[in-house]
Specification:
This is Methyltransferase type 11. It comes from Flavobacterium piscisymbiosum. The protein has a single domain, classed as Alpha-Beta Plaits (2-Layer Sandwich), CATH 3.30.70.100. Helix content is 34%, strand content 31%. It has two helices and four strands. Strand 2 and strand 3 form a beta hairpin. It is globular and about 30 Å long.
């Protein structure tokens, strides 16, 4: 199991639900959550064979900024 953490510019809870739903349509086995309380508006994704670039591309295509954190 791999966990990746991303910095985003997502502000609203409704947006997080939408982004999670879109990612889950492609990757139904991933566990995904946001931490909007964090200053970096953290997106956390957990899954097997997780490709960070795929997550970044999906979030970017929805109009949000998404950067992988080390």
């Amino acid at each position: 199991m791999v966990v990746e953490v991303f910095k985003t510019n997502v502000q609203k809870e409704a947006d997080t639900n939408y982004i999670i739903a879109v990612i889950l349509t492609q990757f139904p086995d991933y566990k995904i959550n946001f931490d909007l309380e964090d200053c970096d508006k953290i997106l956390r994704v957990e899954g097997v064979d997780l490709e960070p670039k795929n997550i970044i591309d999906y979030v970017n295509c929805l109009g949000y900024t998404c950067v992988q954190l080390d």
